[in-house]
Write a structure and sequence with these properties.
Length: 197
């Protein structure tokens, strides 16, 4: 196919092909129709002969039409004016209707914008109140922490430390028991089972 493509390109560019190369293009199912069409147009282009424009009497041809058009000017002028007036009236009515429609849309959009602005203002007021309330709560919490005595906090910390120590001791005792159970299980196992595991 690449060879046929190259041959066809060379032939289109004006290079001559051998009889075998042209037969190869004619036998190619993809390029055979293109070759046939190109040969047709090349033959048509070579057979084309430009004809001269005939010389004729233009005044004799158009003079009767010009005479008749002078008489017909009045007959077509009135319908033209009527159509123009009708077109102008229709255009102005359509423009008026379109303007009314646009005005209605703008008014609706303006009302929506006003409602959205009111909602935004309401939300801003709500956020402002929430910020004020949260700052007041934070001040109250700080004052409560400051008023709590250091001794109470120290006692709470000591109790927490004792609890953690107790939990740690219990966890160590539990781990020691589990380890002892595991050691006993391993000691009571036959030696062959230990090697398999």
């Amino acid at each position: 196919m690449a060879k046929s493509d190259t041959l066809f390109s060379r032939w289109i560019e004006g290079h001559s092909l051998t009889h075998e190369e042209r037969d190869a293009l004619r036998n190619d199912p993809e390029f055979a129709p293109m070759l046939k069409e190109a040969e047709y147009w090349q033959k048509a282009a070579s057979d084309y002969h430009q004809n001269d424009v005939p010389d004729w009497d233009r005044n004799a041809t158009f003079a009767p039409l010009l005479e008749q058009s002078k008489q017909d000017k009045v007959t077509w002028f009135l319908p033209l004016v009527a159509c123009s007036a009708l077109f102008a009236v229709a255009s102005s009515i359509l423009t008026f209707i379109h303007n009314q429609h646009l005005t209605g849309q703008l008014n609706a959009q303006h009302q929506v914008a006003i409602k959205q602005q009111q909602q935004i203002n309401t939300l801003l007021n709500f956020v402002e109140v929430q910020q004020k309330n949260s700052s007041e709560r934070l001040v109250d919490a700080v004052q409560h922490v400051l008023t709590t005595s250091r001794d109470e906090r120290r006692d709470e910390m000591n109790a927490l430390i004792e609890y953690l120590k107790t939990q740690r001791a219990q966890d160590q005792a539990l781990l020691k028991l589990q380890l002892n159970d595991l050691v006993e299980q391993v000691e009571h196992m036959p030696t062959t089972n230990v090697a398999k595991n």
